[in-house]
Each structure stands twice: as structure tokens, then as C-alpha cells.
Amino acid sequence: MAAQPEPEIVLYDLACTKHVSFSPVVWRIRLILNYKNIPYKTIFLEFPDIEPTLKNLGLIPGEASKYTVPAIQHVPTNTYIMDSLPIAQFLESTYPDPLVPLTSDLGREIETKARGVLGKAIYSSVMPREIHILSPRSQGYFRRTREASLGHRLEDLLNGDREERVWDSVSEAMGAIGELIRTHKADGPFVLGAQPSYTDFFIAGSLQSIRVIDEGVFQRMIKYPGYGEIYGACLPYLERKD
């Protein structure tokens, strides 16, 4: 067996009991690493360990004043970076081939609209199920922090027809975003046509996160036009999950 290349990137990711990557924001970076074939290794962190670990590495949080994954170490220069967009910009400038366009008018429109619409669906369907793939330590942290902002138990999001009402309210917008995703369908399987962009990895990473958490919600998502097509086109770059 050929020796594996020494990692040039250390990727700090969020741990779960399935021992694979599931954070949508980390997946955006993992997809770039996989697509560009950059040698890397993963360090998975439990929720309570993210802040002390990243603080110990000397990272300083941005405007949100929060320590979050993804974070990376670029081993050749011993550079540490946190947050998906600054990391993507660094990777694109340091490893420009193959190109991953980080922004476009169409991409910005899709991402902005998807954050609002997908946010509602993920809030109602994914967040209350996410706790089931976390370790007991992370479950306690997750429940405490999420329920403090919710003002009620996570499980209440799934009570009665509450979840269905949310999906009904976003269904039309989900379809409209799907049609935007398919704007350049005649030119190739990705948002901009033949080659993937950061927007494709934004979509595929979100879908992969949902799939790890709950297959049923994932299947519900890909029934809308466009989403499943992007996911399928990105499958080669979704193979490495750890």
C-alpha cells in the first residue's frame, strides 16, 4: 500500500456518536479539501471542548465572540484559522488549482434565501433530532444552550403538527430556491454549470449534515428540485467523512 502523504491541514470538526463529520459548516471546508485533494487529518471535538481547545491554540473569535468549528491548522506555515469563509478564502489562495469560485451573484442569492428558508426547516426538524447523535457530554451542553434560546424543550419542536406546519410554510420557497439552483442546468450539474463552487458545497454540506442526523428529513429535502442533483454531483467529494 502506498504511503499516505503527510497532512498539510489539520481540520477541527464536531464529534458525534456515528464517528463521521456532520456539521454543515465544517462540511463546506471538508468538501473543498476533498475536491482539491489536499492532504489533511481530522480532530473531532465534543461541544464543551471546542472553546478551550481553540483558545489554547491561540485563536481569537470574530465579531460573534464565539469559538466555533471549523478551524484549521495549515501545517507548513503553522497558521491557525477559524470560521468557514476565512478558511475557504485561505484554501483558495493557497491551493488555487482546481478553482472553487467562492462567490457569484447567483450563489449569493441562493445562499441568502436558503439560510432563511432552510433555517426554519432545520430549526424545526433537525435540531431536536441532532441531540440523538451526540455523546452524553455534548448532549448536556447542546440541550442547555439550545433550550436557553428556545425557552422550551427541544422535543416540543416536534409536538403535534408543529413540524408539519413549518414545512408547509416553507414549501413554496424551497421549490423556488430549487429552481434557482437549476439555473445553469444545461451547462452542467452544478450551480454555475460544469464546475463546483462554494455554493454547491454550501448546499451539499447542509444536505449531508441532515442525512447523518436523520435520513427521513434528508429524503424530504431532496424531493424538491435541484437539491438532490447538487448532492449527487458532489458525491465524489462526500466520500471522505472522517
From TrEMBL:
Source organism, top-level taxon:
Eukaryota
* GST N-terminal domain mapped to chain residues: 13-99
Q: Mind telling me which Gene3D superfamilies this protein's record contains?
A: 1.20.1050.10, Glutaredoxin
The record's section on Pfam families has:
GST_C_7, GST_N_2
Q: What is this protein called?
A: GST N-terminal domain-containing protein
